[in-house]
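Example record used in the benchmark description.
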Amino acid sequence: MLSSRWTPTAGTHRSLSRAMQKRISHTKSRKGCRNCKKRHVKCDEQGPPCFNCVVRSTTNTCSLPNSASPTPVRQSKTPPVSSSSELLQPPGLPPLTRVVSASAQSRRMLELRLMHRWSTTTYQSFCSTVYDPPWLQSYVPECALEHDYLLYGIFAMSSLDLIIGGSVVDETQTQMYFQAALEYYDKASESFRQQLSNITPTNFHSMYMFAFMAAAMYMARPLCPLEQRNRQPEGVIGRAAVVMKLLMACSGLADQNVGQLLDVNGVSGSSVTTTITAIGNVVRSPQYLGSSTEEALARLRNLIEADAFLNLGRGAFATPSSLTASYQNAVRWLRVSFGMEAKYNETVMGFCLAWPALAGTDFVEAFSKADVMAMLIVMHWAVLLDRLGSLVWWAASMGRDLVREISKAVLQSKAQVAVGPEIHQSIEWARQQVGLTSELEFDFSSVNPSFMGLLGT
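Model output (C-alpha cells):
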C-alpha cells in the first residue's frame, strides 16, 4: 500500500490483453457451428447456440452448416382464450415472455456458476487480513453489478480457479472455461482502460480490486493445462516484469487514494490500518530472521557496496548513483518483507506483493532490462513469492520458476562479468529455499535466449 507514485498506463493493459489472446489448438469438429469453424476453435456442437458463441455474444449468428432456417410459427387469427398471466398485463403492454432463449439461459447459467465460485471460494485467495472476507465476498460482487470491468474480472478469475482448483476435470469443459476466462478478461481490460482517467470515490475500490486481479490472473494463466501444452514459453523473467508493473499500478492507485483506503468507515479501512501498523512494528523493531536469511541479505548488501555489477548496461536507464540507491532501497524493503512474512504471516498475508512498488520504478525498470544486480535481488524476492504460492493458487510455481530462470541467466553471464563466490552463494541459497538442485547442475541451454542477448553473452 505504501509506494512511490506510479500510474497504470493503457500500454500495460494492452500488452496483457494481447498476451492472453493466444489461440488454443483443438481437435477438429465436423458438426461445429459456422462461427467456431471461422475462428478455428472447437465447438461443443450443443447449439445453436454453442458455448463459445454464448461467451462471445455472437448467438445471433450461430448456425450449423446446412441447417435449415426454422419455420416461423403461424399466428392464429382466432384469438385464444386469455390466460391468467395475460389478464394481469396492464393495457398496451406485450404479454409476459414465457420462454428464455437458449443463449440467454446458457450465459446466465455460466455466470451464475462463476459468481457462485467467487463468493464461496475464489475470493478467499485475495484475503490478506481477517477484515477482508466480508468486503471481498459481498461488497465486491455488489460493486461488480455497477462496474462491468470488475464483473468480467470476477468471471475471468473464477473461470481460472475452476480449472486450476481441480473442480473441472473434463477436457471439453476445461477448454470452455479457459476460453471464457480469456474472453471475460479481454472485455474487463478494455473497459478498465477507459476508466483510468476517471477514478472517483465511487469507483476507486472497484478499480483497485481489478488492478490486483490483473496481476493475479497474469500469474495464474500459465498454470492452466491448456496454456502449458499449447503456448510457447515467454520466459518467466519477462512475465515477472509485467507482473511487477501491474502490482505497481495497483499500489499507484492506492497511493493516490490513501484517504479512502484508510477511512475507518470504509470497506478497506480496518484491513489497511492493520497492515500499516504491522509494517511500522517491523520497521521500528527489525526481527532477527535466522542466520540463513540474514546472511543472504548481507551478501546482497556487500555486492552492492562492492560495485560488482554497475558497469553492465546501466547507462540505458539511470546514472550509477541512482542505480546504487535503487538497489539499496530494494534490499531495505526486501528485509521488511521477510520480516513481515516471519512475524505476521498468519495475520497479514501476501505483503511481499507490495515489494515491487516499494522497490521503486527505477529498480523495476532495471530488472525489466535484465540488469544482473536487479535480477539477483528479485531472485531473493522470488523466495517469498514461492512461499505465497503455497497459500494462494494463482501464485503457485511462479516464485520457483523465477529463481530457476534468474539463477541460470546470471551464471550464464559470467563470460562478461567476474562472478565471485558470493554470487554462487546467493544463487545456491535461493535455489535451496524453493527446493531446486545445486547451481552446479544447471543446463544453460534451457535459458530463454532473449535475456541472454540483454546480458551481452
